[in-house]
Amino acid sequence: MRNADPRERPRREEGGPPRMRRRALPLRVRRREPVRMSAALVDVLLATYNGAKYLEAQLDSILAQTHQAFRILVSDDGSSDATPQILRRYQARLGERLVLVPNPSAGSGVVRNFGNLMQASLDHGVAQWAVFADQDDVWLPEKIASLWREMVRIEGDSGAAALPCLVHSDLTVVDEGLRVLSPSFARYQRMDPADCSDVSLLSVNQVTGCTMMVNRTLLQLALPLPAETIMHDWWCALISSSGRRSYIDTPLILYRQHGANQLGAKDRGLRTRLRRMVTDGPGVVRRVRELGRATRLQSEALLGRLRVQGADGAYVSKYLSWRARPLWVRLAGYRHYYFGPELDRLSRCLLWF
Fold it and tell me: Which CATH number fits domain 42-256: 3.40.50.720, 3.90.550.10, 3.30.70.870, 3.30.465.10?
């Protein structure tokens, strides 16, 4: 695996010298060709908010992809830094390959921002797949190509494209200066996304949004995002349980960690977690309980969506019924429903109602 140099920028194709009718008239600028439906066209959904510090490196890494059949859709959540100016500069350079999507709900947060992009991609109807981009990462050159090849493979069976399909990958965790902290996000977090089941997804998300590619069918079934959505990637992962989901056990992005991350990689080792309990025990308990309530509400929303779509929601109904049972009943079966280290499983069983 070779790392992308965020300073590299792809070469622009020059259209040659402009033609003049007469010396006194202004130069005649060649019109850009509109973006049309392509058999391999992918929408890159980039949500921004005060991301000027790292945005150019991310945009340059996207432009350096080996799979060049893409356009970038950007929705800004009301930035007050130089983010809008950077985006306008890149749009002037890229033309219709970079679309600034109006955000009628600016300031509503990352979930609604990505929901706005998902709806725009679906409404535009020019791309068959969408990938999700955070503003502060660096993509490795084969990211889109690798996801697209796997997506084509899982959609390859007759009628599979009519199913909601999702492909995601591992990440390399890096610091603010792109120095490697861990070569594998999955191992750093002590997760096994390849073994992620539909039932375990109801409690723990193992699909990282910035590595994710979805097809149009998934967008159609996922939208509109319900109010109970914890994160857009988690909701997409839940919707994919009605179709196909595949994990690539290879890091395809540099996942930058810094003080302003919306979500990030956390050390989940026993020593670190015990230290958190000692220094902030009540806060840890409160957050665990809040997540428990949120997962229940999100699962209820999923069950409602599946019923509307006529899809099988029996496993969701069974999970919700189990969560409503007395503690002594849940203690007998919590390992089936709760994924992860034993401390995580037991804390959910004891604190989630």
Answer: 3.90.550.10
